[in-house]
Amino acid sequence: MENVLRPLIVVGGSVVLTVVVGWLVDVLLRRADERHRETPLWGLLRRSRIPLQVVLCTALLRGSYRQTKIFEDHQAGIGRALSLVLIGSTAWLVVRIAAAVVESSYARYAAAHRDPARVRRVRTQVTLIQRVVTAIVGVVAVAAMLLTFPAMQAAGASLLASAGILGIVAGVAAQSTLGNLFAGLQIAFGDMVRLGDTVVVDGEWGTIDEITLTFLTVRTWDERRITMPVSYFTSKPFENWSRGGAQMTGTVFFQLDHSAPIAQMRDKLHDILRECAAWDGRDWGLAVTDTTPTTIQVRALVTAKDADDIWTVRVTVREQLVRWLAEHHRYALPKVTTAAAEPMSNGHRPQPEPFSPDVPRTGRG
Fold first, then answer.
1. Which of the four pLDDT bands, split at 50, 70 and 90, describes residue 316?
2. How confident is the model over 113-133, as pLDDT tens digits?
3. Are 169 and 141 in contact (CB under 8 A)?
4. How far, in Å, are 151, 173, 345 from residue 154 at the CA level?
5. CB-based contacts of 85: which residues, under 8 Å, 6+ apart?
């Protein structure tokens, strides 16, 4: 009977204590979150309840499993397995806590600052910091797991002795990866590009959707995702339309006849912009910028608060001005100059008369 009760008391007691402690911690965090609404930290820390319970339960079992006196022939293996679970769950808990602290800091900064550019810059930085912390914790956890095996401990000395040579070989082999890693840190803290920035890369217009330590994703206007190494943005030129402010100036060009009513077009453009919600009201204009023997080039200038709105304003102006010209001033649309063809007689086209410099060409016949 004792052989049955002892394992039940040890294992059951560890589980019950874990559940009770987890419940108490969750209650305290919920009350702290209700009391301090100005910061989301306490609410975010509640996500750490499960890894905390796993750590606590594993630690209790790791310290008391010998008292169960079951599977005595496999106690070393059970102890190592519990140690591995304890290390992994501790790393999980640390990552969750770090993520809660980082997200809380970003939320408080975003609430205190209204400048979208600065908020996107901080968001990019904290995201990459969180990824770096996760990577470091993961590497340390894996190293700690490996050191629980005696064979790995014995190999530690030889690994340290050859660390210099291995470091050189790894550096040469992973040159591209390391280059992208440092480029990601340069982007994060050099404020070259931020999450949400509107960019033009290799002729593709889109928005920065994701930034990691090794690659960057651009979401195009047609919902495609372009994944590029971050080293591209540190070694090649690209357009950042959000740099220095999101507001933009756009142009719409028209090819029209020389008789186009420019003054009336200017008034109509202003009427269109006043009815367009995407126009920010900063500036507008219409001018003749070029001329050819058959047409003139008219440029409409408009402004908007960001790249999305400038696209809306441009297409609205182009559509409504062209329709207005077609309905009220059709003569202003460009024309193709043609000449009437001479009628054919007997199925043959008339041949031109031979030219003679001594005979003046005053008419036919």
1. very high
2. 666 766 776 777 777 778 778
3. no
4. 5, 27, 108
5. 54, 58
Rounded Cα distance between 61 and 68, Å, is 10
pTM of the model: 0.47
Query: What confidence score (pLDDT) does residue 22 get?
Result: 80
Q: Which residue has the tokens 């310290």?
A: 63
* Tokens found for residue 53: 């319970």
The answer to whether residues 42 and 29 touch, using CB atoms and an 8 Å cutoff, is yes
For the chain, percent of residues with pLDDT exceeding 70: 72
With a CB cutoff of 8 Å and minimum separation 6, the contacts of 49 are: 22, 25, 26
Summarised one tens digit per residue, pLDDT across range 210-229 is 877 677 888 887 788 888 88
Which residue reads 């204590």 in tokens?
A: 17
Pair of tokens at residue 146: 């490996």
Task: Tally DSSP H helices, then E strands, for the chain.
Answer: 11, 8
What's the alpha-carbon Rg for the chain, to the nearest Å?
A: 37
Q: Which amino acid is located at 358 in the chain?
A: D
pLDDT band at 68 (very low <50, low <70, confident <90, very high): low
Q: Fill in the amino acid letter for 252.
A: V
**Main-chain dihedrals φ then ψ at residue 193, nearest 5 degrees:** -150, 145
pLDDT band at residue 166 under the 50/70/90 scheme: very low
Q: What is the edge-to-edge ordering of all strands in the sheet holding 279-291? A: 248-256, 296-304, 279-291
Give dist(CA 171, CA 179) in Å, integer: 10
Q: Which helix (H) or strand (E) holds 310?
A: helix 307-328
Angstrom CA distances, 247 to 101, 117, 275, 329, stand at 33, 12, 19, 33
Give the pairing of strands 204-211 and 198-201: antiparallel
In angstroms, rounded to a whole number, what is the distance separating the alpha carbons of residues 140 and 163? Answer: 17
- Summarize the confidence of residues 264-285 as an average pLDDT: 91
Place of tokens 């409504």: 320
CA–CA gap between residue 139 and residue 187 (Å, rounded) = 23
